[in-house]
Amino acid sequence: MDTDNQTSTVTTEKEIIDIVAKQHEYFKSGATKSYQSRIDNLKKLKSALIKYEGEMHAALKQDLGKPEFESFLSETGFCVHDISTTLSKLKGWMKPKFKLTSLLTQPGTSRVVYSPLGVNLIIAPYNYPVMLTFAPLIAAIAAGNTAVIKTSELTPACSAIIRKIINETFAAEYIVHIEGEVNETTILLQQKFEHIFFTGSPRVGSIIMAAAAKNLTPVTLELGGKSPCIVHQDAKLDIAVNRIVSSKFLNAAQTCVAPDYVLVHKAVKEEFLSKLKDRIITVYGEDASTSPDFARIISDNHFQRICGLIDQQKVTVGGQSNAETRFIAPTVMRDVTLTDKIMSDEIFGPVLPVLEYDDIDEIYSIVDQLPHHPLACYIFSEDSNFQKEIVNNIQSGGACINNCIFHAANHHIPFGGVGESGMGAYHGFDGFECFSHKKGVLKTATWIEIPLTYAPYGNKINLLRKIMK
Ligand code: NAD
Fold first, then answer.
1. For the chain, how far is it from start to end, CA to CA, in angstroms?
2. What's residue 2's pLDDT?
3. CA dihedral of 69, 71, 77, 83, whole degrees rounded to 10
4. How many CA atoms lie within 13 A of 21 on its CB side?
């Protein structure tokens, strides 16, 4: 590999066209494919992530007011841990997987061979700018690809440090970071990629998919949605409120898998609301604006949008905001119904509406009336039949039982949406698969010749019927 690090910023149409062409050439050279080159590049990335951890935390603080603990847990630490897991598992993942060989295709052996896709476009959103850039990149490298990365214009400080890391670590024909907003992304989308990995809103997801269709480029879409959190009457309420508060208000609820709303059983509603209030005050204090552990809203537009969803008449905790600092207090709204504005779309901000239910059919009816297939579904209950029923009947990208969001932190299970919350999945082996082509390979023996499927067919169909029944 050409080890000259990148020195310039790629932004013009000509530069974008040139760099994508160079990546295609580089991929064709085969330099990215060997196990050793994948391992070497992952190790280089890991060292760079460790070296620049402090600068990334500072950038996350600048763009999102993210507390250092959250930056480590869900951004830098997550990525380093992801690389460590990948390094320890990659040899096994790359091995062909042997499969059964059907009677019709005997005598032979069958396997699945994983081959890299080629040149990938990775587009990241603003809310976890480090993790949602590097986690797909780690999978792309592990699977032997090249990648063009586009981060969000809403996180300029994070984009700058990400660019520095990419520029210092990789040659542009292998991995490159592109500066830009909609204009540059539109130019990027006109280029030929073998795969586009997009994380962001369903609205932009459909723009990406339409552009990809013109080049027949496959897409992975990691989108959002309204993820329900069900608190059943037998739930351990103290544990439920601890876990709901910490997962909802992480990153000021700018988290794709944050519990969007709570559905609480009528019998425990008042007790739940009272414990929820106590817990929020315990964690963030009476005035959350002075808490060192609470992030800020990314932009004025999002600040205005979220404030517009709060119905002060229904606020039972929080409700305060400050436009200058883009602070919105951890807020709970009670007695919410489906006609409230807050239930019309993904909230993506620190406001938690609480609705009540009486029986399981009411849960299904509420979830069904909301616009998106949820990205996640959370169930707090001690009843395994209830848990199973919800997992099996609510169509969601992922789920947690007696927890929220942490399914996304386990590198050993797939993470992705369903329906309007996305398509495709990644993390761990599923990430490797997401950036690989699964080639089915049949090897037929030559020590014997069985002319069953050759013409003249005569009455061979009778034997075929027996084999193919
Ligand atoms: P967004 O869709 O506005 O932006 C995502 C990316 O698309 C950014 O890089 C942006 O520059 C680019 N973009 C914006 N408009 C574009 C256009 N017209 N054409 C081409 N590119 C365009 O999303 P966001 O506001 O940054 O992030 C929040 C959304 O992302 C939420 O819906 C959230 O649920 C979702 N999300 C999903 C996941 C997941 O893993 N499923 C993770 C994080 C965020």
1. 53
2. 42
3. 170
4. 6
Å from CA of 201 to ligand 1 middle: 4
Q: Are strands 228-231 and 261-265 parallel, antiparallel or unpaired?
A: parallel
215 lines ligand 1 (CB under 6 A): no
pTM: 0.96
Rounded Cα–Cα distance for residues 250 and 253 (Å): 6
Predicted confidence (pLDDT) per residue in 138-164, tens digit: 999 999 999 999 999 999 999 999 999
Catalytic residues: 222, 256
| Index of the ligand 1 atom closest to the CA of residue 298 | 25
155, 185, 248, best to mutate for ligand 1 pocket (most atoms within 8 Å of CB): 185
CA distance 230 to 262: 6
Counting from 1 in the atom list of ligand 1, the atom nearest the Cα of 180 is 11
Is ligand 1 within 6 A of the CB of residue 127? yes
Instruction: Pull the structure tokens for residue 430.
Output: 């599923």
* Best probe residue, ligand 1, of 204, 299, 348 (max atoms within 8 Å of C-beta): 204
**Is 144 in contact with 116 (CB distance < 8 Å)?**
yes
DSSP codes of every residue in 301-339: HHHHHHHTT--GGGEEE---EETTTTEE--EEE-S--TT
Q: Is the CB of 398 under 6 A from ligand 1?
A: no
CATH numbers and ranges of domains, the chain: 13-223+422-441 (3.40.605.10), 228-411 (3.40.309.10)
Is 43's pLDDT higher than 60?
yes
Total residues found in the chain within this entry: 469
Q: Which helix (H) or strand (E) holds 284?
A: helix 269-284
Residues 6+ positions from 164 with CB-CB distance below 8 Å: 52, 55
Indicate which atom in ligand 1 lies nearest the CA of residue 200.
Answer: 30
Residue written as token pair 């929080």: 318
CA distances from 255 to 67, 127, 180 (A): 15, 7, 23
